[in-house]
């Protein structure tokens, strides 16, 4: 793929990830039913975001010791960046899965849970597009990209079940989990994808336009599904 279009893809993926980060932070801040646990929801969200950024930074340092790492045919720097993106998108599915499970708890939980589950299922489509836009231009085959898009959402049903069964135990850490996922995703978008996009397009307006377009599309889909970000 031409480097210019690779830059466009990175800009689009960054825009979607930044929008997803905003959605995660918004959800974490408005978890009123998780508020009565000593430490405020805001502090738990900020702590989670800080830990998410630290996790990605330490993961980058760890991967730098493996210059010849290979992932699904990708090698070197492309493989390390692919691993970061895969890790971020998979980890954030854990928090979303907990959110789905918790939504089934309490009065009116069945109806609310069905709405959240349907919303999350459709919400996974643009997230899958973001993964593909990040990985396919780097040389990952379409088959492996599709496979990873599917695998990145597997934690959702796995963590939804225990979250529903033990809702009172999961609620206190949910804001922290959402913050962790959002912080990690924002770091990858701002520190990895956007600089690469600028380097490849050699045009700040082009990169910003691609990022803003993807950001608005993702938010529009989210608002259409749930009525809010």
UniProtKB/TrEMBL annotation:
<keyword id="KW-0472">Membrane</keyword>
<dbReference type="GO" id="GO:0005385">
    <property type="term" value="F:zinc ion transmembrane transporter activity"/>
</dbReference>
<feature type="transmembrane region" description="Helical">
    <location>
        <begin position="116"/>
        <end position="136"/>
    </location>
</feature>
<feature type="transmembrane region" description="Helical">
    <location>
        <begin position="43"/>
        <end position="63"/>
    </location>
</feature>
<dbReference type="GO" id="GO:0016020">
    <property type="term" value="C:membrane"/>
</dbReference>
<protein>
    <submittedName>
        <fullName>Uncharacterized protein</fullName>
    </submittedName>
</protein>
<feature type="transmembrane region" description="Helical">
    <location>
        <begin position="83"/>
        <end position="104"/>
    </location>
</feature>
<dbReference type="Pfam" id="PF02535">
    <property type="entry name" value="Zip"/>
</dbReference>
<keyword id="KW-1133">Transmembrane helix</keyword>
<feature type="transmembrane region" description="Helical">
    <location>
        <begin position="142"/>
        <end position="166"/>
    </location>
</feature>
<feature type="transmembrane region" description="Helical">
    <location>
        <begin position="173"/>
        <end position="190"/>
    </location>
</feature>
<keyword id="KW-0812">Transmembrane</keyword>
<feature type="transmembrane region" description="Helical">
    <location>
        <begin position="210"/>
        <end position="227"/>
    </location>
</feature>
<dbReference type="InterPro" id="IPR003689">
    <property type="entry name" value="ZIP"/>
</dbReference>
<feature type="transmembrane region" description="Helical">
    <location>
        <begin position="12"/>
        <end position="31"/>
    </location>
</feature>
